[in-house]
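Lecture notes, part 5. Sequence design as translation. It can be helpful to think of inverse folding as translation between two languages: the language of shapes and the language of residues. The source text, in structure tokens, appears below.
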């Protein structure tokens, strides 16, 4: 990987890690309703990506489903979870999305699982269980259950996305924003109250946070990452994105006083090792043979 692209990936992971902690501050310390925060974020994403909205990618139902899963469902559950869960614990628990993606790929896409991926899944689950363990047994808090739900919806959306081809990153962002904003806005109106009053009480810091989340994290961050995917193999990029939970834990300790003890460190190491094993799985022999024939 070129040094410039590596530094870009480090910056993207840094932005994502900081965003996780910033979201905790918005919905936790500032008490801004989570569905409202997510809705405003996607409204800004729509405004920024509107020129790339048309034509609508096909099949239309799949794009709508992916957008709701990876946008409204994923962010709504994550933000609700962050109201009570710490960013550090959430950063580790959400790694369960890797086993979810693998298992859903087996069910939905008919992929096969080999012993190496099974080992990676086992390590990831062991790390997550260690993080949520206490002397009385496993205690997954309500907030972390929502984080697990966010991991599942994001994984299902990612699996469905494997069946969509030739969708430009900004067009994808535009449709995720569009199909996410409406259900989030309706849900916020139905289940939350004093949304604008809570945001107004925070003032300009909230404006800065939501602009950062929408423009820097969603539009610039994700678009830059999609560009890297087009230039490099996923097996190279996936392990490097493990910088994101590491940055999240570091920012959590610094900004939200997250507790970082030996059990948390051990759980994080196990979970990230499992993700690494899955990400570095061997490529199919048929793919390697095809590359040799082309060479």
């Amino acid at each position: 990987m070129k040094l410039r692209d590596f530094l870009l990936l480090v910056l993207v992971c840094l932005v994502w890690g900081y965003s996780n902690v910033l979201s905790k501050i918005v919905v936790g310390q500032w008490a801004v309703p989570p569905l409202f925060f997510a809705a405003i974020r996607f409204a800004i994403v729509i405004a920024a990506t509107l020129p790339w909205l048309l034509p609508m990618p096909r099949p239309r139902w799949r794009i709508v489903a992916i957008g709701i899963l990876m946008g409204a469902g994923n962010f709504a559950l994550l933000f609700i979870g962050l109201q009570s869960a710490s960013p550090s614990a959430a950063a580790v628990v959400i790694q369960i999305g890797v086993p979810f993606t693998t298992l859903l790929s087996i069910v939905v896409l008919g992929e096969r699982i080999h012993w190496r991926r099974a080992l990676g899944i086992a390590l990831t689950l062991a790390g997550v269980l260690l993080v949520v363990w206490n002397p009385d047994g496993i205690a997954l808090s309500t907030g972390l259950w929502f984080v697990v739900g966010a991991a599942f919806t994001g994984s299902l959306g990612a699996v469905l996305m494997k069946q969509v081809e030739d969708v430009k990153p900004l067009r994808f962002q535009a449709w995720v924003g569009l199909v996410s904003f409406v259900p989030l806005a309706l849900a916020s109106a139905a289940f939350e109250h004093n949304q604008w009053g809570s945001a107004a009480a925070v003032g300009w810091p909230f404006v800065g946070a939501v602009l950062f989340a929408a423009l820097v994290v969603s539009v610039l961050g994700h678009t830059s990452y999609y560009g890297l995917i087009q230039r490099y193999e996923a097996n190279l990029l996936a392990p490097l994105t493990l910088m994101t939970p590491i940055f999240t834990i570091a920012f959590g300790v610094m900004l939200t006083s997250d507790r970082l003890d030996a059990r948390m460190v051990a759980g994080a190491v196990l979970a990230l090792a499992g993700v690494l094993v899955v990400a570095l799985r061997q490529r199919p022999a048929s793919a390697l043979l095809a590359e040799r024939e082309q060479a």
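The translated text above is only one of many valid answers, since several sequences can fold into similar shapes. The two ends are 21 Å apart (CA to CA).
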